[in-house]
Amino acid sequence: MDSTTAATTGAAPVQLPPVDSGTAILTTAGYLFLLLAAILLAFWLLKRFGMPGSLSSGKGGPRLVSRLMLGNRQSVAVVRYRDRDMVLGVTEHQVTLLAEEEAREEEASPSPSAGFAAILKRGSTDAD
């Protein structure tokens, strides 16, 4: 019946090209893996070298000096950022600045023995 309708309309039957699905799938998968590898390489390079001016935890980024857990999801943290020591109250829903002062040069890199209590004592003696 198709040959009679094609003969009456004067158009030749449409032939679909054969599809080589094996080669097409392998080529597509190869390009996808290549794209994935390029994305992972870019991520690694950005993580390794960082971007200038970004908020990374590099030399100028914020650094956690000490942290004291008060409850299940509450804590007090001392964070050093741009030569400033900030005492932060951290809860599940908010972060509150409790105190802030200039970081001292001799304490620029605190020793592991200097605990949270020593940092808080330093802040309380400076307030007096």
Automatic annotation (TrEMBL):
It comes from Pseudodesulfovibrio portus. Belongs to the FliO/MopB family. The keyword S-adenosyl-L-methionine does not apply. Residues 101-128 are annotated as: Disordered. The keyword Translocase does not apply. The chain crosses the membrane at residues 24-46. Keywords: Bacterial flagellum, Cell membrane, Membrane, Transmembrane, Transmembrane helix. Residues 109-118 have a biased composition (Low complexity). This is Flagellar protein. It is found in: Cell membrane; Bacterial flagellum basal body.
